Amino acid sequence: MPAKYLTQTSGSLSVMLICTALNTTVAHANASPSDLERITVTGSQYTLASRHNTHFLSKERIESMPHIADDIFRLMPALPGVAAGDYSANFFVRGGHSDEVLVLLDGQQLYRPFHMKSFNSAFSIVDTDNVGAMDFSSGGFTARYGNKMSGVMAIESLYDMPQYKHSLGVSFINARAGSQGTFDDDKGSWLVSVRRGYLDLVLDAVEDESNKFEPIYADLFAKVSYELTDTQSLSGHFLYAWDDEILDDTFTEWDGVREYQVQEKVSGEYSSAYAWAVLHSEWRDSLSSQTLLSVARVEEDRSGGQYDPTEVWLTLDDNKFFYAYSLKQDWQWRVSDSHYLESGFEAKYLDAEYDYWLEAWYQVNYDGEDYRQQKTQLTASGNVFGAYISDRWRLNPDWVAELGLRWDQQDYYGFTKAQWSPRVALLYQPTDAQRVSLSAGEYYQPEDILSLQVADGTTEFHGVEKARHVILSYQHALSPTFQWRAEAYLKKLSQLRPWYENAFDLYEFLPEGQADRYRVAPDSARVKGIELSFQHHITAQWQWQASYSWSNAQDSINGRWYPRSWDQRHAVKLTSRYQFDSGWQISGLVYFHSGWPMTGESGRLVKNTSNGGYEVLRSLNERNQLELGNYKRIDMRIHKIYPLSNSELTVFFEVSNLLNFDNECCIDRTSYSVDGQGKLLKKEERGHWLPIIPSFGVKWAF
């Protein structure tokens, strides 16, 4: 029996749209309407660009929207359920940690895919101009994906040959060059691009002699594809990213009594290299497979020091080296018009080396420790295996079900575990304009072999964390141009790995050496929330999208529930774009969310038994009982494409935090004084996220 579709017409092509949770998969009119592989059964799926005609955000829309450094990772916080700080391109999905998202590029997993890792991973290593499609899941993803608990970010590089095959671009942050072409009567195609950030040159022109900040970074991406036969094609991919970062800063602080000098030094050299090949095979009309063979290398060298006469003197040296060899295969089999199977396996050999050293002396301590030394050298290697099967079938014209089962095993450095992960989803389409989906499953995340917390003294892998997802989603297309969605979710987490945080600032440059570092060891955790999303194409020139999210992310520690440090109880996000008849486009983003929780400190006067005087005894507060101020930001971008003779010129102007809101990010400093009555007074200075930042860019395509 045929599936239920919404039908639109684009030019002369009629397409039938299968609505998902603000993710719309396309089935062309000449395709069988019962093709189950085109149906997304689970909720919480978003398509930000697509090889099809409909999407949550098209590639052209992404290019016209404001996002710092033209980084697609920086655009992710515009989605419901995603939280992030201004200083980082990394993000949190539905209350999970930032390392709980699986990032794939053309099927290859990317490990810590960021530039400027010494400085909170400010940008990603993925060039947005190379992105042809991206599917994002914030929960309930199918058995195809494993070893991550919160989300999947699956990126595909460009696949269509554009009108203009070469491009040069420059912006406030970086410069790039790209080229595409074909060979052998269009049987083969190639793509290459290179970027170089030049923040170091900009900052060198404005810095004074007391500070030096030189973040140098670059990346290269290349892809070659070739049709071996009518049924097989082979592609080779290469991604390389490199960073050389230096911070040497001296600044003045005030403790309420006197001024003093603080010195910070951070340097880092980072490189990531990936090489992989993918064989696409169409064995027959109903059976296909993809085979991926890859090698990845990540090298991270970080050193630094800090001299603050009132708090800490520290020095550290941190070196990591990582290799991964992978073989992966995925199969798709359309058994019948009402039955569709997916299965696959993955095998990896991993090797990681750690060499870490830290020494710190504390003037202020919260745990009675005045001196700390940490030295770790170890090598961990071993294997990771995974396999899955997913069975999707149409029960009747209104109902589609999907059952999946995944098996994973890890065996490295004395750590051997195996997990079975059942997953189930049910889709109900009562009318052509409505869909209801319910999905549930178990998701496991082993401690990554590259993520051992040696900086905090950990020398053994913890084990495997577990999450149970339940997601209920309802979507209604009130008209061909307006749709809305409501979604409720619950995540229960157990077997959690302890982690370490800073009580005053999540984004410290040398976090592990600070006096406010403390251990978080929950017994369990839960995240629950409701998301409302709206999308309206008012006219061909004017579109808007909006979302409201309520969420509650908490850890259970010793029988009490504490909010997670990135918990956003309320969040509102609004995007809009208008295109003028002159060709200029103006786009805006409005962000609002509740302030993040913070721990902070308290002090009390105690008598010094050695001299009979009084001193301030400082201690950390109970975890995350303070709250920063509400966050609000407006970003704007204007954008235009100028057609030229055999080429085109794109220009944009952008302002981030247009109204220059002072959004609190952290606690910069806490000082104490005693008034005339002998009462202890506390002064807490809050730090802030990024101020107003203007930017611009030009791209010439020819």
Provide structural commentary.
By secondary structure, the chain is an all-beta fold. It has one domain: TonB-dependent receptor, beta-barrel domain (Maltoporin, Chain A), CATH 2.40.170. The protein contains three helices and 43 strands. The strands form nine sheets. It has a 22-stranded antiparallel barrel. Strands 4-11-12-7-8 form a five-stranded mixed beta sheet, with no helix packed on it. It is found in: Cell outer membrane. Belongs to the TonB-dependent receptor family. Hemoglobin/haptoglobin binding protein subfamily. InterPro entries: Beta-barrel_TonB, Beta-barrel_TonB_sf, Plug_dom, Plug_dom_sf, TonB-dep_rcpt-like.
* Name of the CATH first level: Mainly Beta
Overall mean pLDDT score?
90
Number of helices: 3
Mind summarizing the main beta sheet? 22 strands, antiparallel, barrel
Number-wise, the strands total 43
State which percent range the strand residues make up: over 45%
The number of domains: 1
CATH architecture: Beta Barrel
Write a compact overview of the structure shown:
The protein is an all-beta fold and 702 residues long.
Record the SSE blueprint.
Blueprint lengths: L5 E5 L2 E7 L4 E5 L16 E5 L9 H6 L7 H4 L6 E2 L8 E2 L7 E5 L2 E2 L4 E2 L7 E2 L6 E7 L13 E7 L8 E6 L2 E10 L4 E10 L1 H8 L4 E17 L4 E23 L4 E26 L2 E22 L3 E25 L2 E24 L8 E26 L2 E14 L2 E14 L5 E13 L17 E16 L2 E13 L4 E4 L14 E4 L3 E14 L4 E16 L2 E4 L6 E10 L5 E9 L3 E2 L2 E7 L6 E7 L5 E2 L3 E14 L2 E10 L7 E11 L5 E9 L4 E9 L1
Parallel strand pairs: 7-12
Antiparallel strand pairs: 1-2, 2-3, 4-11, 5-6, 7-8, 9-10, 11-12, 13-14, 13-43, 14-15, 15-16, 16-17, 17-18, 18-19, 19-20, 20-21, 21-22, 22-23, 23-24, 24-25, 25-26, 26-27, 27-30, 28-29, 30-31, 31-32, 31-33, 33-34, 34-39, 35-38, 36-37, 39-40, 40-43, 41-42
